[in-house]
Automatic annotation (TrEMBL):
Coiled coil: none annotated. The gene is LOC118896755. It comes from the Eukaryota. The lineage of its organism: Eukaryota, Metazoa, Chordata, Craniata, Vertebrata. It comes from Balaenoptera musculus. InterPro entries: Dimeric_a/b-barrel, NIPSNAP, NipSnap_domain. Belongs to the NipSnap family. This is Protein NipSnap homolog 3A-like isoform X4. One of its GO terms (cellular component) is mitochondrion.
Length: 199
């Protein structure tokens, strides 16, 4: 894991020359150990295709970044998501930890569960214990999946805020409504890598 992270840190500029890295984290709790999570930004599918072509033809990227980490990589997954229309990508106020919460919603898409889901997220935002970084809905991957990325000053402040939210009647009411459309939910505590633009 350390060798992987050091190599990426040293050579990530070869990839960011082609596309924008929103953030990079390693999983601390709640998921597979020694897992790294990246968010890359593309304006559209055409740009993403052009970046892939450019990288495939970039000998320096292949030799210095891709090939060295292939032997250190056990598994790789990719999803295409979009930022939901009612949420802007926010930068955190300072260093901290992140929580990625993944919701598998019932089939039907945002037309079915979008309003209730938004109210539940906003109820947490209004309490102010955590900062919403972004809400992402899958376009390719498991459909009806929503990822919500939160920033917290620390794991302890996140835990205290969550306990507070469980006792807030506004949050309880909004979550009670949203959960009618929920199939499953999972979260991970993420620690920024040493090469994150989103700190």
């Amino acid at each position: 894991m350390n060798e992987f992270l050091e190599n990426v840190k040293k050579n990530i500029h070869l990839q960011t020359a082609h596309s924008e890295l929103v953030g990079s984290w390693s999983v601390e709790f709640g998921g597979r150990i020694d897992k790294v999570f990246h968010i890359w930004k593309y304006d559209n599918f055409a740009q993403q295709t052009e970046v892939r072509k450019a990288l495939a033809n970039d000998k320096e990227w292949r030799e210095q970044l891709l090939i060295p980490i292939l032997g250190l990589t056990d598994k790789q997954e990719s999803e295409i998501t979009y930022l939901v229309p009612w949420c802007k990508l926010e930068k955190p106020p300072k260093e901290g930890v992140y929580e990625l919460v993944t919701f598998q919603m019932k089939p039907g898409g945002p037309a079915l569960w979008g309003d209730a889901f938004r109210r539940a997220i906003n109820a947490h935002v209004d309490l102010g214990y955590s900062k919403l970084v972004g809400v992402f809905h899958t376009e390719y991957g498991a459909l009806n999946r929503v990822h919500v990325l939160w920033w917290n000053a620390s794991a302890d402040s996140r835990a205290a805020g969550r306990h507070q939210s469980h006792e807030d009647p506004r949050v309880v009411a909004a979550v009670r409504e949203s959960v009618n459309y929920l199939v499953s939910q999972q979260n991970m505590l993420l620690i920024p890598t040493s090469y994150p633009p989103l700190e």
